[in-house]
């Protein structure tokens, strides 16, 4: 599990995937989110603009990110 240090109050889900290096572009993030491949707090999330806050867990593939 990797950690991502949040600098603001929140980050959007698509931006987090790109910033954490789990996807190579915003377009790729859009597709994996739309396809239901991303979990937020163990639930499928299909909203690219979902606000991710401290304490949230985001999973994609074999990777999980804890937002701190």
Describe the protein in words.
There is one protein chain. By secondary structure, the protein is α+β, with helices and mostly antiparallel strands. Helix 1 crosses helix 2 (26-34). The protein has a five-stranded mixed beta sheet with strand order 1-7-6-3-4, with helices on one face. It has a two-stranded antiparallel ribbon with strand order 2-5. The chain has a single domain, classed as RNA-binding S4 domain (Structural Genomics Hypothetical 15.5 Kd Protein In mrcA-pckA Intergenic Region, Chain A, Roll). A hairpin with a 2-residue loop joins strand 6 (57-60) and strand 7 (63-67). The longest helix is centred in the middle third of the chain and has 9 residues, at 26-34. It has helices spanning 13-19, 26-34; strands at 2-4, 11-12, 38-40, 43-44, 51-52, 57-60, 63-67. It starts with a strand and ends with a strand. It is globular. The protein has two helices and seven strands.
